[in-house]
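anyone seen this seq b4? input:
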Amino acid sequence: MSDIENQVPVTEFEQLLQELEKSHLTSLQPKPESNKCPYGCDENGFIWTTAQNGTDMAKECVCRKKKVESKRITFANIPDAFKGMMLENFHNDIYRQDNSRRDINILLKAIRLYLEQIESHKATGKGLYIYSDVKGSGKTRMAASIANELMKNHDTRVKFATSSKIVQEIKNTFDKETRSCTQSELISALCTAEVLIIDDFGIEKISDFVNENFYNIINERYNNNKITIYTSNYSQQDLPYEDRIKSRVKEKTFILHFPEESVRDYIADNDNVNLINGLRRN
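predicted toks r here
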């Protein structure tokens, strides 16, 4: 008798038992960790769902949003002292003069309105020029708050730097052994940022080199309707740069005159008082 004739036919019931056994063994095996993201994606930044009509849809995962936000913060290079500061944290009680408090309230309303209309300003490249003759009036603090608002609430890529830092970074590119990027790469990053914030505009020692480089940056942004926000201790007409720079700055910014009162000394005095009181309590 052949082997085929000796085989016992497998019934349908036995086939089901075999399938059940295979399924049970498979379920006991540890499943590979394909979903390590705590927010629900497979580390690709998107969560896939199927709509009622059967269409596959991708939703951006929270992890991807956090990564994008982290990259923006790194690129922005906002000073550590001002990271995370928002407009809601900017209080007028740090000013001692009544007119300063009144002016800050008006400025805050104007800046909030500007941010609400940021998309239209992106189309025209209209920025802000925040200035006061007095140093320490809160201009840098306000500019950093604007930067944080733009990144967090308006999906905007921001670059923050003092004018003297920009000049120094350009000079650093001349040393091929120590530079982190070429001059053209640095200038490109400054020219293409959605919003460039130049702090302490006009504070550096002016030279032909400074005028030429700032003109190249500002003119490129001017031509491409890129928003530039400035803080300065100079009014626009008193800026120490060439007229071709000043005229472009004037055309592409709204002027915000900050209170002519230094809050830096007041904050320092307050910190000293708090320190002394703390020592007395101990």
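DSSP finds eleven helices and seven strands in the chain. The chain has a mean pLDDT of 84. kinda curious what u guys think
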